Known about the structure:
The protein contains 9 helices and 12 strands. By secondary structure, the chain is an alpha/beta fold. The protein has a 5-stranded parallel β-sheet, with helices on both faces. Strands 7-9-10-12-11 form a 5-stranded mixed β-sheet, covered by helices on one side. It has a two-stranded antiparallel ribbon with strand order 6-8. The longest helix is centred in the middle third of the chain and has 89 residues, at 109-197. The protein is rod-shaped and about 140 Å long. The termini are far apart. Keywords: ATP-binding, Coiled coil, Kinase, Nucleotide-binding, Phosphoprotein, Transferase, Two-component regulatory system. Its EC number is 2.7.13.3. Residues 5-120 form the Response regulatory domain. This is histidine kinase.
Amino acid sequence: xxxxxxxxxxxxxxxxxxxxxxxxxxxxxxxxxxxxxxxxxxxxxxxxxxxxxxxxxxxxxxxxxxxxxxxxxxxxxxxxxxxxxxxxxxxxxxxxxxxxxxxxxxxxxxxxxxxxxxxxxxxxxxxxxxxxxxxxxxxxxxxxxxxxxxxxxxxxxxxxxxxxxxxxxxxxxxxxxxxxxxxxxxxxxxxxxxxxxxxxxxxxxxxxxxxxxxxxxxxxxxxxxxxxxxxxxxxxxxxxxxxxxxxxxxxxxxxxxxxxxxxxxxxxxxxxxxxxxxxxxxxxxxxxxxxxxxxxxxxxxxxxxxxxxxxxxxxxxxxxxxxxxxxxxxxxxxxxxxxxxxxxxxxxxxxxxxxxxxxxxxxxxxxxxxxxxxxxxxxxxxxxxxxxxxxx
Length: 392
């Protein structure tokens, strides 16, 4: 066994001498013998010890337990208790100070050596564990500092993204509004050309034809700009639900008339309005966007001379709308993408469109607090079902 520097703290002189002799026989160095806690602490001030053999009952004001507490705090040296008592009360007091080991008196040499070895081994492992804990705490501190720094960078990036998003929204709105003024002038001019052509102009037919093309193109471009402006507001979180009192039948018929005015494929819109109150409360602008887009799509993707059915009723403060066409339908594989921005199904052919209409519908229904669902079969048509909160 390796040699240790040992301090003996024992108030019984005979026991102390016997212990000293036993330890020296095993080549340990005794740095001092103290009969009180006070003396043991004085010796430790000027001498380094590898281990302290501590009697529980000492002369002086400090007993072995209190002296061990001080040694643990100031010197962090392993302590082996020497006690003649093995009752549970004594052992509980000893356990509070986390001793390295204890020996019941009278002891034998073999038992003493084994206890000292265990005490040194336990102390070594505890110190290794403490060092590992300290290293771990340092790593945690470093990692926490790294995470805090990364979080600051992320916050900066998010702030920059927010600023860019606001800039994008302002650009979209400014550019879109800038287009609307000349488009209005072009539309007015096209309508005037058609009016002048009615006065037996020699190129009357050509003027009307080209003026109609200009008018339709301007309407399509104006509709696209309206959609872009809509998503500019949506992305900037500036869309709010603004309920107003609406004359139900008059509003629904106005939407249908607007859609009918743009029909180019001789599609008929059949309406069926049941159990409608005179007035409802909802957001008129959002409701118009929903119905105009769905009805326009139903007409656009219907076959020439086809039929679109528009059914509306009111139950339990819900406006229930059904829009059914007999058009080209949507394939099963593409139905999950139907509300994605700019998505257009593969079977739309040469029909014009931006792919924004149903995205607008979905966003409006989310803001208004409603529900939407659909069923569709290729070449058999599509039916949308919408429920919108609308109190009488």
